Amino acid sequence: MIVSPQLLILGAAVIGAGVLGSVFRRAGGRTPVGVALGAAGGALGSMLFMAPLDYCTFEAERKTLDAIFGVLLVVAGMALVLAPASWISERLIRRQSLISESQITTGTFKHWWLAFPLLLPTLTILVLFLYYPSVETLRLSTKLSRLGARREVSVCMDNFTRLVHDAEYLDIVGRTLWISAVIVVLSMALSLLIATMAYLPVRGASIYRVLLVWPYAISPAVAGIIFLLMFNPAGGIINHLTGQWFGIKLGWLNDPKVAPWTVILASVWKSMGFNILFYIAGLQNVPKDLIEAGAIDGAGVLRRFWHIVWPMLSPTTFFLIVTNLTYAFFETYATIDYLTPGGGPLKSTTTMMYQVVQLGIRNNDMGKAAAQSIVLFLLVIGLTLLLFRSGERRVTYGV
Alpha helices of the chain — where are they, by DSSP H? Predict the structure, then answer.
């Protein structure tokens, strides 16, 4: 599929002109200025990702899938340029209209450029430790790059397009999703149950709460070592007890069907302390008069919990879903590596994060590792945005 770069830039400029022109018109600004700025922003955005790639996705020998990736990159580049430009332009126009109407505005600088010297230390740290590594990862994802090699070869978007047809990688993605989902659900459900019991007015409650929270202080690697000693099929205490009591000994670490559940148990135990801490704090903010009113009206314990306590805990629950999801995707690598080295029997515990480290560090394939890390990042960002759009409306703030 051959597409001229000039045609792409022209089309992007037209779209940008329409977008920013409509923003200026709605905000009461000068539409021709918005059209001009939008055309420049759209053209610049279309080149943001494609110019470094030399528009390789639209070459004659490329497949339709490569062209689709190219279009997505053009759209992403335009969004990165036009979205901030639209936001800034709309607010500047409204600020100018307020000033022209002699309305008092607070919390603003007399000169707009004064904000930049104040933001310079923060911007410097962000550029050095966030933006530059991100750009370097994106650059590596388009290369055939080996760790320690002197030369790199450009492969355009092949590191991405090959993943679509890679059955093994798609299996890893599916495994990552279900393992992460089970970790989040089990961890939060058990944490809420334990936090509810720990919140009861019993003697020595503060000691119990400290003992419940302390697993959060240890690293995922230590959690993996602890569960390795406990669930070792040959000499672990778990198989010793189940063998004596039930006559059953499971291959916790060498059975492809059981090994993922061992990783899940270790990850749930590791993250429960964090969840319990926040749920106990959330329970302290539930008004007791509401619970007492429900009891006076004849509502039972479960009904009071479901209709009063649970809605009041929704902000805490929403926050914990997002943080636990991030933990399940990114921070389980060390636990997996210590419990099931190599990603488990038949790769039964290999997740997307584990695969990235295996490819980049142990197989020295930095290009493929960078591409898969970007896919993982986009997947987590997409799930997080989905949670914010679908779940935040159900969150109850206040009484």
Answer: 5-27, 31-50, 64-100, 115-126, 132-140, 158-164, 167-198, 205-213, 220-231, 237-245, 259-284, 288-296, 301-304, 310-312, 314-330, 333-339, 352-357, 366-391
pLDDT, tens digit (0-9, with 9 covering 90-100), for 245-262:
988 888 899 999 999 999
Burial label for 39, CB within 10 Å (0-12, 13-18, 19+), is buried
Element (H, E) at 144: strand 143-144
Min mean pLDDT across 92-101, 198-207, 227-236, 349-358 is at 92-101
- Give the DSSP H/E element, type plus range, for residue 102: none
- Does domain 167-394 bear CATH number 1.10.3720.10? yes
Position 387 pLDDT exceeds 90:
no
Q: Where in the chain is the domain with CATH 1.10.3720.10?
A: 167-394
Tokens 């930095």 -> residue: 366
